[in-house]
Specification:
GO terms for molecular function: aralkylamine N-acetyltransferase activity. Helices cover 37% and strands 25% of the residues. With 215 residues, the chain is of the alpha+beta class. The chain has a single domain (4-214), classed as Gcn5-related N-acetyltransferase (GNAT) (Aminopeptidase). It has a seven-stranded mixed beta sheet with strand order 1-2-3-4-5-7-6, sandwiched between helices. A hairpin with a 3-residue loop joins strand 2 and strand 3 (69-80). Helix 4 (83-93) packs antiparallel against helix 5 (98-113). The protein starts with 6 loop residues before the first strand and ends with a strand. Coenzyme A binds at residues 28, 31-32, 130-132, 137-138, 140-142, 165-167, 169-170, 172-173.
Amino acid sequence: MNFSEDIQVRVVESDEGEALMQFLLEHYYREEPLTAGCSPPEPEQADKDFLLSNIPHGTCLVVVQGGSRIVGALVAGPKDAHEAEHLAEEVVEHSGTKWGRILGLLARVERETNVCKRYGVPSTIHVHALGIDPRLRGLGLGARLMSAVAERARALGHPLVTVDCTSLYSAGLMARLGYELINTIRYDEYLDEFGQQVFRPPAPHDSVKTYVLRL
Ligand SMILES: CC(C)(COP(=O)(O)OP(=O)(O)OC[C@H]1O[C@@H](n2cnc3c(N)ncnc32)[C@H](O)[C@@H]1OP(=O)(O)O)[C@@H](O)C(=O)NCCC(=O)NCCS
C-alpha cells in the first residue's frame, strides 16, 4: 500500500474528543506560536475546552494513517457578525489568564478584520487549530485538511473559510492555497498596558496573519 492509500481525512466523531486532544497536546500546542510564546508553556483548560466544543459542529477533521493513528488535525467552527462582541466578553471573563491573553489578541484580530461585515456574509467557518505530526510535515497533509474543511463549509452553506495564522508555516500554506491575506499584526508591535510585548514566539514566527477563502 502506498502512502496516500494509507491516509484518510475524516470528520471527528462525538466520542473522539480525548484522542483529538491527545494529538493536539503532542503536535499542535507545543509549537503553536501563541501557546509557546507566553508562559506557562501549557494550554489552559478553558483553551482546550473551547477547541473540543467545536466537535459537535461537524467541522473538526483528522488525518488518520493505517486506519486508526491520528497524524493530523484541524479544529474549526462557525462564527457570525457578532464574533467581535462575543470575544470582547470572553476576554473580560478570562482576564488575567494565559487564555485571556490569547483571546485578547484574537479579539483585536476580529475587530480589525470583521470578516462577516467586510465580505457581506452572515457566517464563516473559522479554523481555530491546525497541526500535523512533525514526521509527516511537508507532504501536503495540511493542504488536504484545508481542502476538506472548505468542502464541509460549502456543504453546510457557509460562504467563507477564515483562519488566523499564528505560524509562519500555516501562513505559507494558506498563501500557496490561494487564500486572500486581509490583516497582519506583528508580535513585536502587540503590547500590553505597560508597553511590554505580550507574545514572544520563537523564530521564525513574527506575526498573526488572517486569510480568507471565498467558496
Ligand atoms: C502548520 C502546519 C500544520 C503545516 O504543516 P504542513 O501542512 O505539513 O506544512 P507544509 O506542507 O506547508 O510545509 C512546507 C514546508 O515547511 C516545512 N514545515 C512545515 N511546518 C514546519 C514546522 N513547524 N517546523 C519546521 N518546518 C516546517 C515542511 O517540512 C515543508 O518543508 P519542505 O518544503 O522542505 O518539504 C505545521 O507546521 C504544524 O503542525 N505546526 C505546529 C502547530 C501550529 O503552529 N499550527 C499553526 C497555528 S495557526
